[in-house]
Write a structure and sequence with these properties.
Layout lengths: L7 H4 L5 H12 L6 H8 L7 H13 L3 E4 L4 E4 L8 H4 L3 E5 L5 E4 L2 H13 L9 E5 L2 H6 L5
Bound molecules: zinc ion (2 copies).
One zinc ion (ZN) binds next to helix 7.
């Protein structure tokens, strides 16, 4: 057992034990985790069925505490701890390293706002903005051999 501060210090009330266990796993992960990778790490908390993990992930995302990376079908804890409102959580953008798998959350709301206003001009009411950029993170760029 490792002693770590309980994740609910930032999450506040409203989280069940399953939610807290899943959030702790995401917060400790080096990169995005698939639902089954999460499940492997929460079995000792008594979560044994994938639907329990999916329900917890769904709640965490709804509360702005976690995000789904669509292109990886994987999940990360929010880099900001928690978004102040669901709309901001739905505008989270990510850069994903092709080499090490790191996913970095960007505070790129101007780009999301521009995309949303373009959609609004066409009469759309935007729900979620999904922007996921792939490339090499700073660490992998430094290690990668240069061109030629
Ligand atoms: Zn976030
Ligand atoms: Zn990398």
């Amino acid at each position: 057992m490792t002693a770590r501060p309980p994740p609910d210090t930032r999450a506040g009330p409203g989280l069940g034990p399953n939610d807290r266990a899943v959030l702790a796993v995401l917060a400790d992960a080096k990169g995005p985790l698939g639902a089954y990778e999460v499940l492997d790490q929460v079995r000792h908390h008594g979560l044994k069925a994938p639907p329990q993990v999916y329900r917890a992930l769904h709640r965490l995302i709804g509360l702005g505490l976690a995000h789904r990376i669509e292109s990886l079908n994987a999940f990360v804890a929010c880099a900001h701890g928690r978004h102040s409102d669901a709309v901001r959580a739905d505008r989270a953008m990510f850069v994903i390293c092709d080499r090490c798998g790191a996913a970095v959350e960007l505070d790129a709301t101007p780009a999301a706002a521009a995309a949303e206003s373009a959609a609004t001009a066409k009469g759309f009411r935007v729900g979620r903005v999904i922007v996921e950029m792939k490339g090499l993170c700073a660490g992998c760029t430094a290690e990668a051999p240069g061109p030629g």
